[in-house]
Each structure stands twice: as C-alpha cells, then as structure tokens.
Design brief:
The protein is an alpha/beta fold and 339 residues long. The chain has two domains: 175 residues, 3-Layer(aba) Sandwich (Rossmann fold); 147 residues, Rossmann fold (3-Layer(aba) Sandwich), CATH 3.40.50.2000. The protein contains 13 helices and 13 strands. The strands form three sheets. It has a six-stranded parallel β-sheet, with helices on both faces.
C-alpha cells in the first residue's frame, strides 16, 4: 500500500490535485504535503486474532493522525482513509468533508468488520478495495457497489528479461500466512535453487521453515526495487504461496513485469491477475505442493513477452485513472484537492 501511495501522489499532483497526506513521522512522499504525526504504532491487523479487541489510545499514532485529519479537513474536498482500523470508520459521520475509505486487506478482525458493516448499512459509506476477491471476504457487501482500484507496478524499474536462469523466486513478508514452506518444498521436489527475498517478521517461523530447506534455498534479505528486479528477472518462475486470501499481491505484477510467470494457488487477488496458461499458472489449492510443482513445469513453456504484456495493464497511470474516477464519483463536482 505504501508503494502505491508513493507513486500515486506525484501523478495526482501532475493532474493538478492538491494532495495532503497525514502519515507517521519520518514519512516522505514526493510532491505532496505531508503532515507528519508522532505516536505509538498500532499492532498489525494482518497478525491479529479474529476476536481481538481494539483500544483507542491517547498517544497512538493512528489516533493522532485522525485527530489531525479532523483539523485540516476543510482545506480539502475529500478525505480518504487508507487503513483497516476501527477508529476511522467510527469517526466517519463526524467529518463535514466527504470521507471515503480504501480498505487494503481482506477481512481479518470481527470488531473492525462490525463497524464497517454498521456504517455500510447506515448508507453513504463509499468503499474502494483492490480486487473482487478481497471484497468477497466481507459478506455484508454482497451486491453492493465497491470500487476496485487494483494495484500497480513501476514497469520502468521492473524490467523485462528474456533469458532467465534455471531457478525459482519467492518474495514477501516471512510470516506464517505467506506459506514460504510450500515454496521450499517445491524447490526441493524440483531440485532447483530458490531465491527468498523479504523481511523476517516471525523469527521462529523462519527457523522452522529453514529446518526443511536444503542448500538450494538462498536468503537475500529485504531488497530494494532494483535488486529485487534482478531476482525476479533471473527466475524461471516466481512462487506465490499465501495461506490466506491475498487482497492483491504486488509480488505477482512485479514478477510478471520482468517477464517471469507466476505460479500460485487459484484463490484471492492473485487469481484475478494471473491469466492461467498465459501469464502464469493457477494451481488448485487442494493440490497443495504437488499442484505447484506441476505449475512450475507448465510455466517454463510460457511466452515471457505475454507475461510482461499482462503486467503493463497494471501501470501506475492506469491505477491513477481508477483512483481519480473514484474520487470524482464520491466527491462530486469538486476542485482538485484531496487529503
């Protein structure tokens, strides 16, 4: 989500929008007005139990950010909440400026879902999400209008490579919901080197996964875009192996931009991006590792130019078009200004 905001903001400024972003202290967004706010960070909803209870804190960064948004709202024509937290949805009726919400993850906590549903049923709540698969994780939205923004990739950074090596790639947060152990098992079954890229968020999980790994697994740490592009581009296929429903999947379009097909389970956001048999292979979830192994073999025969062409459909310019259409549809006839 951070990558998308960093790239969307300059495009919107070029289109003569005044963009203000309320963000934690230290945040830098080119060409946008950034209101830096201090405070204690909130726990990640992606790691929370479904029954977890949220608590508002006087010194929390989330609370301070929304307090600041309340103060500056009249300088803008629309306020866009980009989070999955209880507080923003609770505060929605208290804003005089139109406020809309871009939810960036799938349903994860019952308490947050409850306030979203409450505001939705009250009417007037305008939502955007990445994919239809993400929206389906919120049952109360069935039949409702949710704007789909999808995601985007910088195709100038993630460049095409027609000559990969005989190796695999896996990139993402290293935590249980990302299913790294499946990728390790695939590499072992095919006796292929596996490049693992990403931040270790759960050390005990990482150690457990590596106990079953052979010498073919190479860990590169958290990489910047240029080095990450090299890992994707040199791979025969990229494995995407989430245990949960992914809202979108940046790894998918980054890999495809390099011409590298994606082998993933047929579910969630990745299944809306990957064209089975063209830009990658969708394995039946019930087939598990065996399905992914077959998928890698099939992916080796795909045309990498076709894979790249699919990624080009997810440029930041196109994402900005979708975002702008959403803003204009919820804010009405407004001067170009959003927070």
């Amino acid at each position: 989500m951070e990558t998308h905001l960093l790239n969307l903001a300059p495009i919107l400024v070029e289109r003569r929008y005044t963009v203000g972003i309320v963000a934690p202290a230290g945040s830098i967004v080119p060409r946008a007005m950034v209101y830096q706010v201090t405070g204690e960070m909130s726990p990640s909803a992606t790691r929370a139990e479904r029954a977890a209870i949220t608590a508002a804190r006087t010194g929390g960064v989330l609370e301070n950010m929304w307090d600041h948004a309340l103060r500056v709202q009249r300088q803008y024509d629309a306020v866009i909440g980009v989070s999955y937290d209880w507080l923003p949805f609770y505060l929605t009726p208290f804003f005089s400026t139109p406020i809309r919400h871009w939810i960036t993850i799938c349903s994860a906590m019952d308490e947050v879902d409850s306030i979203v549903e409450k505001r939705w049923r009250e009417g007037g709540l305008k939502l955007a999400m990445y994919t239809a698969a993400q929206a389906r994780t919120y049952p109360f939205l069935a039949g409702g209008r949710v704007h789909l923004l999808y995601g985007a990739v910088d195709t100038a950074v993630f460049q095409y490579n027609s000559q990969p090596q005989d190796r695999l790639c896996w990139a993402g947060r290293i935590s249980p919901e990302k299913g790294l152990e499946d990728a390790i098992a695939v590499a072992g079954a095919l006796d292929m080197p596996l490049d693992v890229c990403g931040k270790i968020q759960d050390e005990s999980y990482w150690q457990a996964a590596m106990r079953d790994a052979g010498a073919q697994v190479v860990y590169h740490g958290f990489l910047g875009p240029v080095e990450l592009q090299r890992r994707y581009a040199n791979a025969r296929a990229t494995l995407v192996t989430p245990r949960w429903i992914e809202a979108f999947g940046n790894t998918v379009i980054e890999s495809m931009a390099c011409g590298t097909p994606v082998v993933t389970y047929d579910r969630g956001g990745p299944a809306e991006i990957v064209e089975h048999g063209r830009s990658g292979v969708l394995a039946p979830p019930k087939a598990g590792v065996a399905g992914l192994v077959d998928g890698v073999r099939e992916a080796a025969g795909l045309d990498r130019r076709v894979v790249r062409a699919r990624a080009e459909e997810f440029s930041f310019v196109r994402m900005a078009d979708r975002f702008e259409h959403w803003i204009e549809s919820v804010a009405g006839d407004v001067r170009p200004s959003s927070c």
